[in-house]
């Protein structure tokens, strides 16, 4: 089973997936890593692991549609069973989402459907929320709105600030993303026709 990972930055989630693969725990192979930022550290992580690393700078395309078209081409060249967004900071067009529907996963630093969008840690703190977490979800046209596959929750402690939350959430992301990818590649995690995420056939 073949996986393509899209990144924009540090790629610590990518690293968690690479590590899982090295322990034979991913259920497939990361065949390419694509970044819209040429200087993304994740590209180095990919190269160090012997994975095809591709920089596709969105600024060189005149429109979102042109970029997405180029991105689709590069991805399809690698014939993936699954496309994984791991800190990919571009909103994808409906055309892109439709092309990879049901085989497109994202990870988001909140307990979705709470706190879609950016700056989740700051908003959680400002609200005095007692719980926070991370979610892996199927990507649909609604930003951070697709059906959730797996979540990890944590209590917000009195001393927490943005930095501590970021660190704790990242640690949980690194646990749940490889699990979700393995479930998908093993055929256990699916997006059904009604748009629900199912695990072993159960919603
Ligand atoms: C993660 O917090 C993820 O939830 C969000 O972007 C961040 C990526 O971090 N979508 P990294 O590049 O994997 O370290």
Automatic annotation (TrEMBL):
The keyword Transferase applies. GO terms for cellular component: cytosol. It catalyses: N(1)-(5-phospho-beta-D-ribosyl)glycinamide + (6R)-10-formyltetrahydrofolate = N(2)-formyl-N(1)-(5-phospho-beta-D-ribosyl)glycinamide + (6S)-5,6,7,8-tetrahydrofolate + H(+). This is Phosphoribosylglycinamide formyltransferase. Catalyzes the transfer of a formyl group from 10-formyltetrahydrofolate to 5-phospho-ribosyl-glycinamide (GAR), producing 5-phospho-ribosyl-N-formylglycinamide (FGAR) and tetrahydrofolate. The chain holds residues 17 to 219 of 240 of the full protein. The active site is at 108 (proton donor). Transmembrane segments: none annotated. It comes from Pistricoccus aurantiacus. The record marks 144 as: Raises pKa of active site His. Belongs to the GART family. Its EC number is 2.1.2.2. One of its GO terms (biological process) is 'de novo' IMP biosynthetic process. (6R)-10-formyltetrahydrofolate binds at residues 64, 89-92, 106.
């Amino acid at each position: 089973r073949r996986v393509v990972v899209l990144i924009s930055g540090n790629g610590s989630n990518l690293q968690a997936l690479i590590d899982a693969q090295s322990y034979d725990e991913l259920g497939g192979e990361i065949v390419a890593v694509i970044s819209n930022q040429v200087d993304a550290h994740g590209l180095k992580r990919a190269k160090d692991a012997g994975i095809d690393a591709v920089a596709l700078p969105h600024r060189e395309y005149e429109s979102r549609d042109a970029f997405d078209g180029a991105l689709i081409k590069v991805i399809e060249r690698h014939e993936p069973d699954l496309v994984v967004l791991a800190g990919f900071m571009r909103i994808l067009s409906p055309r892109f989402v439709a092309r990879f529907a049901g085989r497109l996963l994202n990870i988001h630093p909140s307990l979705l459907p709470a706190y879609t969008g950016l700056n989740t840690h700051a908003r959680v703190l400002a609200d005095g929320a007692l719980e926070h977490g991370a979610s892996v979800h199927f990507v649909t046209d609604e930003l951070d709105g697709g059906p959730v596959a797996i979540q990890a929750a944590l209590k917000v402690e009195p001393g927490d600030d943005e930095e501590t939350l970021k660190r704790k959430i990242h640690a949980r992301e690194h646990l749940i993303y490889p699990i979700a990818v393995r479930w998908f590649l093993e055929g256990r995690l699916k997006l059904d026709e009604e748009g629900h995420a199912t695990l072993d056939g159960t919603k």
